[in-house]
Design goal:
Elements (H helix, E strand, L loop, with lengths): L2 H20 L2 H14 L4 H13 L3 H14 L4 H13 L3 H14 L4 H14 L2 H14 L11 H32 L6 H10 L32 H6 L1 H14 L3 E3 L21 E8 L2 E2 L1 H4 L3 H8 L13 E6 L3 E6 L6 E9 L4 E5 L2 E3 L7 E3 L5 E5 L5 E9 L5 H18 L8
Helix pairs in contact: 1-2, 2-3, 3-4, 4-5, 5-6, 6-7, 7-8, 8-9
Family: Belongs to the aspartyl/asparaginyl beta-hydroxylase family.
Keywords: Dioxygenase, Oxidoreductase
Organism: Massilia consociata
């Protein structure tokens, strides 16, 4: 194309845009047609003329122009979406589907295209295809309130349809699997049931998210089977003695420190409400791998039991053990721990009604004297909705799947980190 033609097309385009801005649709159309006479594949002219034709109700002409546009260009999602809308208006479902596919080839994550595909499949009664399309909408869509108001109803429809499909699918599988589950009575099928619930959307998938160190290949579970830790029997049997030691230190009102204690220059995120607050406090018996002398001496029975636990040895970091005190009407926000090489054990000592713990999808109400073990690198939270104190003995233990050799190497690694940083606790695991 000669430079003179290029300049002429540019001038015509400026005039056409000015005419559109003034609302002079007929004048704009003549100018766009003039451009197409010189450049038959001009994207802006094709798009603008198709829009004018659609507004005038000339669907066939609008589609012909858009077909030319995607054939000549097709690099923009909106070109394909416009074609899909015209095909929808013409009740051409095959053309509509092809246009939506073209949009998703350009951008597989385009939310509008995904919504259009879900609505097409729902309209066609293609239930299983619609389920997959709605699942894609659910995977891509941000929170509804952040979407443009005109898009929210369509996204809400796709999400609701997906939930309804999953409920129906889940009910069918529950009935189908019922005899098979009865055949397996006596077996521990919790993992299977949890996996099924996650697949069906009845539960959310929670993966370990250690803040600092993730050890590959360790089993991840919200709560571990209590029977796998027989040494906890001694702790449970001594619950009354441990509680008495706690009540004695509580009466003296000394040694309790905020559980969360960040400096002013640290990002608080979810901890702002609890930072440096005694609403969630700790009476620390072992801290950063060392016994807290003054506190430990006041709780000899508890310390003797802790010596029998498989506590993780990471110099300057672990083991740790404390009485965790949650005041009335206090909630600990969702958070994750630092490393999956150790698990967290709880021995509930004082648990009024209205207290609970969630780890992943699983919620428990503590029972005084009944220990539990969980992976705190899975998102967890706790609450005390009562008007009394909640008190739990908390301590960490090695993950039971770690061999002695692995434990020794983790201990050595921690010492190496200390040697590099030259400060205990400079890098917490």
């Amino acid at each position: 194309m000669q430079q003179a033609d290029i300049d002429k097309i540019a001038a015509l385009e400026r005039e056409a845009l000015q005419a559109e801005g003034r609302g002079a649709a007929q004048r704009a159309a003549r100018l766009w047609e003039a451009i197409l006479a010189r450049a038959p594949a001009h994207p802006r002219a094709l798009r603008s003329l198709s829009h004018l034709a659609f507004q005038a109700g000339n669907l066939a002409h609008a589609r012909a122009l858009l077909d030319r546009l995607v054939a000549a260009d097709g690099k923009e999602v909106q070109q394909w979406l416009n074609l899909a809308v015209v095909c929808l208006a013409m009740q051409d479902e095959a053309g509509e589907e092809a246009a939506i596919r073209g949009a998703l080839v350009v951008d597989p994550y385009d939310l509008v295209a995904l919504v259009l595909r879900s609505r097409l499949y729902i309209r066609q009664g293609r239930r299983h295809a619609a389920a997959g399309a709605c699942a894609a909408v659910a995977a891509v869509a941000p929170p509804l309130h952040t979407l443009a108001p005109d898009l929210q109803p369509a996204v809400r429809e796709a999400l609701a349809w997906h939930e309804a499909y999953n409920r129906e699918f889940g009910g069918f599988l529950d009935d189908f699997l019922a005899p098979h589950l009865r055949d397996q009575q006596g077996e521990n099928l919790r993992r299977f049931r949890d996996s099924l619930d996650v697949m069906l959307g009845r539960k959310r998938r929670y993966d370990p998210q250690p803040q600092l160190f993730h050890y590959q290949g360790l089993a991840a579970a919200s709560f571990f089977e209590r029977a796998d830790f027989p040494w906890l029997d001694a702790f449970e049997a001594a619950t009354s003695e441990i509680r008495e030691e706690f009540l004695a230190v509580l009466a003296q009102e000394e040694g309790f420190t905020p559980y969360v204690n960040y400096g002013d220059d640290q990002p608080l995120a979810q901890w702002a409400g609890l930072n440096r607050s005694l609403d969630w406090s700790a009476f620390r018996l072992i801290d950063n791998g060392e016994a807290v002398a003054g506190n430990a001496a006041r709780c000899p029975r508890t310390m003797a039991l802790l010596e029998s636990a498989p506590q993780p040895v990471q110099p300057g970091r672990t083991p740790s053990a404390m009485f965790s005190v949650l005041k009335p009407n206090t909630r600990i926000p969702p958070h994750t721990g630092v490393s999956n090489v150790r698990l967290v054990a709880h021995l509930p000592l004082i648990v009024p009604p209205g207290c609970g713990l969630r780890v992943g999808n699983d919620r428990v109400a503590w029972e005084e004297g009944k220990a539990l073990v969980f992976d705190d690198t899975i998102e967890h939270e706790a609450w005390n909705d009562s008007d009394k104190l909640r008190v739990v003995l908390i301590f960490d233990i090695w993950h039971p799947q770690l061999s002695e050799a692995e434990r020794a190497l983790i201990t050595a690694m921690s010492a190496g980190i200390n040697a590099f940083t030259r400060e205990s606790g400079g890098f917490a695991l």
